Each structure stands twice: as structure tokens, then as C-alpha cells.
Amino acid sequence: MFGYVRPAPARLSEEDKRRFGAAYCGLCRTLGERYGTAARFILNYDFAFLSILLWPEETPEIRRRGCIAHPLGGRDYFPGNQALELAADCSVILAWWQLQDALEDPGKGKTKYRAAAGVLNGAYRRARDCRPGFDRAAREQLKRLGELEAARCPTLDEPADTFARLLSGVAGEIKEPVRRRVLEQLLYHLGRWIYLIDAADDLKEDFASGSYNPLLGRFSLEKGELTGEARESLIISLDNSIRLCAAAYELWDFGLWSPVIRATVYEGLFLVGKAVLEGTFHAGSTEASRCRRNKELL
Length: 298
Known about the structure:
By secondary structure, the chain is mostly helical. The protein has a single domain (9-293), classed as Farnesyl Diphosphate Synthase. It is built from twelve helices and two strands. The longest helix is centred in the middle third of the chain and has 25 residues, at 177-201.
């Protein structure tokens, strides 16, 4: 995933910040416990947010231990549960298939992606055995996405829909039917927003390298920059996805996580989108750097 989905810190109480930080660090520990230290480098806010959407009704007590990124003070964390395990499994699977997609992209260098795939290979195989349904869905949707990219699809809707279907497939692991339908809708529209904001974030790089980017074809951009009507059109599309995501959120009671989810859906996504379009967003490349850049939140 990409690290775009995070709550607006100003909208959270200190307790909610602590709880979200504990979920984030809990996912990091769960990745390490299930898949080894290397897997912790794929940690990001998107799957931490996914874990709280999937959170069971019973919430364990927050614990505290030292960690590699904070060796002196330690960090609060939630011990592993079914939501953190599901988020960890799906993040490994998605990271693996994204690496395979990158290896087939003629516009990108292969060495770093090949090395990362080699490190993640064993983790992927274990995650695939745990979540064969999501693995199958991720493989199929990313294959379809690759076909659209190879054909230089000139629309936004087809590739965005493909990625949205991929993310909504996580909800297939939920047994309760009403909750599953709510999460399918929420994750679908969130996935569409993620795909489009990532395209905006990568626009200049893709323009320079000649890689596929749906915004380049849709708006016939000549300089790799969104201006005027193109920018306004994208903003309308992004905002619509957020509104539909919020509409799905209102259909379910997320309990103690409601303030964090509300702060994400109703403000956090807008803030991140604004930062991406202004060129001021920095996702961070490792768990340690993400923590340093987000002290207010964590």
C-alpha cells in the first residue's frame, strides 16, 4: 500500500492518538511475529487503518515495550488479534503482487524490486496459504490493472475501479453479512481514492520516466502537471469517493474506533489529498522515518 490513509491529529483526543498509535505499532509487531523483521518494512498507515476497521468487539489492554525505532522510550502497542493478523497477511500479499507488477513495468528499474521480492518471497507464501481468497483476488485484479496499464487506458474509472475491487476484497474475510457489505463499500471507495491520489503523487515521476499514469492519458497533460480544469476535475472525483466512503462508514457502529475513523474519513483524507496536490506530502520509506515525521500523531 502507500501510506495515505491517516487521521487528522487535531481531531483526536490524546487517548485516541494513543490508541491509534498502539494499533499501528501492534501491526508492526504482528508483521514481525508472523513474517520476520524484513516484513515490518512494508508497514504503513493504510493497513493500520484497515486493522481498526476490522477490529473485534473485545479490545485487549494496551501494552508497552521497546522497539527498534524507539530503543529508549519504547512504544505502546496492542498485542496481536484477528484484525491485526488479517491486516498483516493482506499487506504482505498486496506488497508481493505490487512488486511483481513493478517488475513487469518497462518504465522502472528492476534491481530494487527484484531484491525486495526475494526478501518477501517466503512471507508471501505463508500469507497466501493463510488468505487464499484474498491472494486470488489480488492476483486477478492486479493482472487486470496491468493489462489496462499496458494498453495505456485513457480513462480514470477503469483502473481506479480495478484497484478499488482489489481492496474491497479484504472484506470477504468477514463472516457477518451486514458488516461485510458495509466494509466492501467503504473499502471500495477508499481504494478508488487511494489509486487516484497515488496517481497524482507519482505524476511528475511517471511523466519523466514514461511510465503509465491514468491522469496523463485522461487529461492529455503535456508537462506532467495538473492545472486548471484537469485539477478541478480530479478534485471533484476524489471528493466524491470520500463522500461515498463516509456514507458507508455511517452505516455501522465502529465503537471505540469511531473517533479515529471519523477523523480520517471526514478530514484526514482531505488533508492528505491537499498535500499531495500541492506537492508537500511525504509518506516516508521506513517505519522509523514515518514515526519521526509523525510525532504529533504517534
